[in-house]
From TrEMBL:
<keyword id="KW-0813">Transport</keyword>
<protein>
    <submittedName>
        <fullName>Phosphate ABC transporter, ATP-binding protein</fullName>
    </submittedName>
</protein>
<keyword id="KW-0067">ATP-binding</keyword>
<dbReference type="InterPro" id="IPR003439">
    <property type="entry name" value="ABC_transporter-like_ATP-bd"/>
</dbReference>
<keyword id="KW-0472">Membrane</keyword>
<dbReference type="GO" id="GO:0035435">
    <property type="term" value="P:phosphate ion transmembrane transport"/>
</dbReference>
<dbReference type="InterPro" id="IPR017871">
    <property type="entry name" value="ABC_transporter-like_CS"/>
</dbReference>
<dbReference type="GO" id="GO:0016020">
    <property type="term" value="C:membrane"/>
</dbReference>
<dbReference type="InterPro" id="IPR005670">
    <property type="entry name" value="PstB-like"/>
</dbReference>
<keyword id="KW-1003">Cell membrane</keyword>
<dbReference type="Pfam" id="PF00005">
    <property type="entry name" value="ABC_tran"/>
</dbReference>
<dbReference type="InterPro" id="IPR027417">
    <property type="entry name" value="P-loop_NTPase"/>
</dbReference>
<dbReference type="GO" id="GO:0005315">
    <property type="term" value="F:phosphate transmembrane transporter activity"/>
</dbReference>
<keyword id="KW-0592">Phosphate transport</keyword>
<keyword id="KW-0547">Nucleotide-binding</keyword>
<dbReference type="GO" id="GO:0016887">
    <property type="term" value="F:ATP hydrolysis activity"/>
</dbReference>
<keyword id="KW-1278">Translocase</keyword>
């Protein structure tokens, strides 16, 4: 692996309203310091990709944004969301996750009906009105373009869906909670190209209503769907800018080598 100067960075924060601002975030697993990130602002109603080689810290960094590292790592720095630092130990993490939802690498529908997958958390959060629940169900499934495929089998098990359908169901389950921000950790890595294309299309549409931060290994995917891209190397954010600039005119050697395949 080439030695790059980790202090050589090029960070252009978007001149747009931010939904989340991360300041000097650090993460350690025991004595292993894996994230030392610069100050990044994530824009509202845009898609931001986190790219980088395996082990560069993308998932760890993403998990900071809804406190998913709490029990496994020590997190430092500030992550401002609606004027509150989400690292404050006093904040209600379950409430936070209603505003900042997450979709994981492997589709993980509950072993329940499609309807229950969508309404379970809503009911747990006190929504009892049947019409409202049905409306959320339909709107969320339409939001991920799954409604036409499942509207006649809402009471069948979600486990019978294909991988691509199950992943879109998981996105629908997240958006049913009407979060502000959707975090996605390599959501297409277990999907075939057709399901991946459908998911990407869904995310592009959803970015009109939600701010999206996505970890992806797939550089074509990052360049296809995201408005902004952050390149991570060894836990450092090396470059952050509009996606087009990162891919066509990278400013730092490590970024250039990574996107041109000369890395390592
Ligand atoms: N639960 C954990 N305990 C200890 N170390 C961990 C843990 N999770 C990740 N790490 C370490 O933190 C570093 C960053 O890992 P992370 O999974 O965030 O990288 P990544 O860029 O998302 O990688 P990949 O693309 O392979 O998923 C790696 O060195 C990894 O071994």
């Amino acid at each position: 692996m080439k030695n790059y100067n980790l202090d050589e960075t090029y960070i252009i924060n978007p001149q747009k309203e931010s939904t989340l601002s991360a300041k000097q975030v650090t993460v350690s697993y025991g004595t292993n310091h894996v994230i030392h990130a610069a100050d990044l602002n994530f824009p509202r109603y845009k898609i931001t990709s986190l790219i980088g080689a395996s082990g560069s810290g993308k998932s760890t960094y993403l998990r900071c944004f809804n406190r998913m590292n709490d029990k496994i790592a020590t997190v430092g720095g500030q992550i401002m969301y609606r004027d509150t630092d989400i690292n404050n130990p006093k904040i209600n993490v379950y409430e936070l996750r209603r505003h900042i939802g997450m979709v994981f690498q492997r589709p993980n529908p509950f072993a329940k009906s499609i309807r229950e997958n969508l309404t379970f958390a809503l009911k747990k959060n006190g929504m009892t009105d049947k019409n409202e629940l049905e409306m959320r169900l339909e709107t969320s499934l339409k939001g991920v373009a799954l409604w036409d495929e499942v509207k006649d089998k809402l009471d069948q098990s979600a486990l019978a869906l294909s991988g691509g359908q199950a992943q879109r169901l998981c996105v629908a389950r997240s958006i049913a909670m009407k979060p502000d921000i959707l975090l996605l950790d390599e959501p297409a890595s277990a999907l075939d190209p057709i399901s991946t294309a459908k998911l990407e299309e869904t995310l592009k549409t959803l970015s009109n209503q939600f701010s999206i931060i996505i970890v992806t290994h797939n550089m074509q995917q990052a360049s296809r769907i995201s408005d902004y891209t952050a390149f991570l190397h060894m836990g450092h954010v090396i470059e952050y800018d509009e996606t087009e600039n990162v891919f066509t005119n990278p400013h730092v050697r490590a970024t250039e080598d990574y996107i041109s395949g000369n890395f390592g």
